[in-house]
Specification:
Blueprint lengths: L4 H17 L18 H49 L1
Amino acid sequence: MKPQPRFLVPFLLVLATLMLGACRPTPPPTEQPPEPTAQSAPADAAGDAKATQMRDAIQAPLDKARAVQDATQKAADQQRAAIDAATTQ
């Protein structure tokens, strides 16, 4: 007896799914504690240096923008003073 072609494709899909489901990797054992890291002191010093560099990289454009804002505000105040001096005379 020959299988009907319309049942062959779903049968193969189910078979492939079952075969792939059986190929799951086993999870690592959970009873063992994690391995300790080497030394945390040098890593902390390097981390502090990186944090300082990151903070400096963020602060530099902010400081520059504040300086430009202060210069712009000072120029605007001088222009207002010059306009007021010219109109009051």
